Amino acid sequence: MTFIETTIEELDGAPIADPDYFVMSMLLDEVYDIQEILRQVHNWSERKTRVVLVSYSRLWRPLIRLTEVMRLKSRAEGENYVPWIEVENMLALEGFEVTKRVDGVLLPVYIPALSMVVNRWVAPLPLVRALSLIRVTVARPIQDQPEPLTSVSVVVAARNESGHIRELIDRVPVMAERQELIFVEGNSTDDTWGVIQEAVRDYDGDPRMTLHALQQPGKGKGDAVRTGFDAASGDVLMILDADLSVPPEELPRFVEALRDDSCEFANGSRLVYPMDAKAMRFLNLLGNKFFGNLFSYLLGQPVRDTLCGTKVLRRSDYDRVAANRGIIGDFDPFGDFDLLFGASLLGLRIRDIPVHYKERRYGATNISRFSHGALLLRMSAVAASKLKFVG
Hints:
With 391 residues, the chain is an alpha/beta fold. It folds into 2 domains: 8-141, Rossmann fold; 151-387, Spore Coat Polysaccharide Biosynthesis Protein SpsA, Chain A, CATH 3.90.550.10. Helices cover 35% and strands 18% of the residues. The protein has helices at residues 34-44, 61-69, 84-93, 114-122, 165-171, 192-202, 221-231, 252-259, 282-299, 315-323, 325-328, 336-346, 369-387; strands at residues 21-25, 50-56, 96-104, 134-141, 151-158, 178-185, 209-215, 236-239, 265-269, 311-314, 350-354. The strands form 2 sheets. The chain has a 7-stranded mixed β-sheet with strand order 7-6-5-8-10-9-11, sandwiched between helices. The chain has a 4-stranded mixed β-sheet with strand order 1-2-4-3, with helices on one face. β6 (178-185), α6 (192-202) and β7 (209-215) form a beta-alpha-beta unit. The longest helix is centred in the last third of the chain and has 19 residues, at 369-387. The radius of gyration is 24 Å and the shape is globular. The mean pLDDT is 88.
């Protein structure tokens, strides 16, 4: 490890090349010109760099001053105690976008057993967290010239979807100079696998798009998605459900969101536009809204529709998500939450992309409302212990 000991104002260039993180703990409370420091850090940052800012809440300022008078805390000259809303404003002025906010520490004095319980399990709770001593803000540098995206891989997990395969191929638009459509079939009881093989063999459409047929080694959509992503070669990785409930014609807006650096993880949202009468059952709609609110809290970013099958991210970001999969655990049979949790761990900017939701015209849904709902609750509890209640 290389340690550099100096004041940040005296650094003429980046202390290291290609940094993953800049951690500034209580730093902005002590510098003279915050914007100049943030501008400097932005110049040193790469696309994947995250800036982590730790600051005190102004609500605690009287108590902090009291601890300084009592000599329980040292006092620095000219401390700003900049409120978090001003920190976020200056981040925006210098080309950063906030990707996560975490509040914590209600009991800054150590009391055996009690401090751990209060600070880990009580401080992160809704409403209560507004009283916390510490605010952690994670931000990403917005790119003036985003990295080009020259290839796209669309992964379609297909189980008992033979009636949709050929129409899907005809309707998927070409979104890049090079594109591949990867079908991953698993455990079908109809002729889905045969139809896929025949469609891939007979394809004579746009020469910029190639088709591939795979069979997943395991079970569940999550296994199929990971199988397809592992085989994909595109700069952009995209999931598309085989049931055509999300119109393929709306896929380019996901790629455009990444290309323009509007986000780093594009998540489809079916809860914006009116949907077909039989597209989503009432209990499913309630479940989607519940898990949308729960995940928005856990991820620290608004995500209205966690269960939409259309999700898109860069290959380079997916590789980092996969490398960190063991932190949350490899237990997601759907694939959606593995990606969302992983994106949150990396501090990626997640943004909903509104889509229209159509009624399926062939086959039946593979989702079980009650058993899968219970599983989602268990997964949410595990994720909460890693993302929110971290101690």
